[in-house]
Write a structure and sequence with these properties.
This protein has one domain (2-50). The two termini are 16 Å apart. β3 (24-38) and β4 form a beta hairpin. It has no helices and four strands. With 51 residues, it is mainly β. It has strands spanning 2-4, 14-19, 24-38, 41-50. Strands 1-4-3-2 form a four-stranded antiparallel beta sheet, with no helix packed on it.
């Protein structure tokens, strides 16, 4: 999944995700994350594991 970037997002950490459009509401472990900064915009692409 792609998100607005967050400096604390690292592999192994757990984050709570709510997305009404996708019907997601739960805790997910970050398996991997790739941060990108482009023109002052921080984004990240994550591979998540459902807990």
């Amino acid at each position: 999944m792609d998100f607005i970037g967050h400096d604390n997002a690292r592999a192994g950490r757990v984050m709570h995700i709510i997305d009404e459009y996708l019907g997601i509401d739960g805790n997910y472990r970050i398996k991997s994350v790739n941060h990108k900064v482009n023109d002052c915009n921080h984004t990240m692409s994550c591979t998540l594991e459902n807990l």
